[in-house]
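Task: sequence design from structure.
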């Protein structure tokens, strides 16, 4: 007799949440938890912020592009909230009025009045030199200033050099491509034009450290958004800045030594009676306590407390 064939056994496994790992549902739950915690931290931060910050954040969600200047950071770049004092505002208003009167008084510049736009914003006094199709301030396709541009910048330098405010210079172009050469485009042209304005301003008396930033934006910030090729998109902006950047520098507690000379000196505290008493073998005086580089600075505020509970923080 032939051997009996072995029976075929079929094992069916049930799908679903088998194997004990429950699929990926836990990942979704964890992601929701992390998102909720992030939202909580943002809300807690907003609750401790100033009314101006709250207004700017609320306005951003209503109009993202229209409220960027509420804190004075649309083009300033460092995100520091502008501090607009009454004295600074008055000084800028007087400067605006004086510049407009001097431009009208000069026959050579009176015809350019329509090409010069002076406004006071949260960032400070913004002076824009706007081109037309004929090229008023710069030669066509060149960073070289025209005679009118040189005369106007000389007039501006005479007033700006007397101010304590920092200056920021921006260059803008329209969307027309400068050339097919990738090594020199509208980016280079806008930056070179802003830099040529800086050189002329400093040549006419503006302090070297007064100009803090020179920027070239090409066609990224159009003046006429509906027409990227409009000649008025080509412009130079000189911003007389408001804000904390103009405050006097904070004294450095402990200066470093560079080339054998100390870069800063810190006032020593008054010696205590115990420190001035003679001690064997020689009299000693108390020295200012040096900060311990190993100890991290104390974080104040709500965010500092929250980060202290994070893993790895002590």
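Answer:
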């Amino acid at each position: 007799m032939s051997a009996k064939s072995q029976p075929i056994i079929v094992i069916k496994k049930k799908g679903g949440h088998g194997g004990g790992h429950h699929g990926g549902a836990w990942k979704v739950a964890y992601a929701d938890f992390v998102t909720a915690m992030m939202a909580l931290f943002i809300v807690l931060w907003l609750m401790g912020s100033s009314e101006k910050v709250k207004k700017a954040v609320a306005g951003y969600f209503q109009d993202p592009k229209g409220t960027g200047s509420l804190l004075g950071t649309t083009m300033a770049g460092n995100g520091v909230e502008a501090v607009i004092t009454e004295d600074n505002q008055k000084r800028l208003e007087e400067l605006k009025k004086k510049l407009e009167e001097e431009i009208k008084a000069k026959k050579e510049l009176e015809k350019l009045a329509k090409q010069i736009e002076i406004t006071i914003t949260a960032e400070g006094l913004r002076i824009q030199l706007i081109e037309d199709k004929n090229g008023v301030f710069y030669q066509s396709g060149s960073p070289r200033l025209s005679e009118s541009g040189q005369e106007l910048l000389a007039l501006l330098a005479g007033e700006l050099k007397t101010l304590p405010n920092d200056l920021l210079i921006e260059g803008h172009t329209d969307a027309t491509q400068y050339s097919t050469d990738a090594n020199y485009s509208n980016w280079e042209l806008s930056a070179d034009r802003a830099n040529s304005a800086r050189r002329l301003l400093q040549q006419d008396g503006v302090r070297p450290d007064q100009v803090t930033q020179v920027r070239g934006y090409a066609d990224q910030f159009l003046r006429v958004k509906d027409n990227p090729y409009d000649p008025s998109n080509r412009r130079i902006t000189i911003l007389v800045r408001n804000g904390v950047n103009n405050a006097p520098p904070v004294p450095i507690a402990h200066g470093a030594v560079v080339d054998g000379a100390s870069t800063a000196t810190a006032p020593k505290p008054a010696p205590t009676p115990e420190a001035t008493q003679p001690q064997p073998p020689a009299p000693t005086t108390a020295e200012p306590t040096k900060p311990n580089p190993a100890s991290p600075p104390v974080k104040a505020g709500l965010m500092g407390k929250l980060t202290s509970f994070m893993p790895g923080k002590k």
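The beta strands are 116-120, 124-130, 167-172, 211-216, 235-241, 257-258, 261-262.
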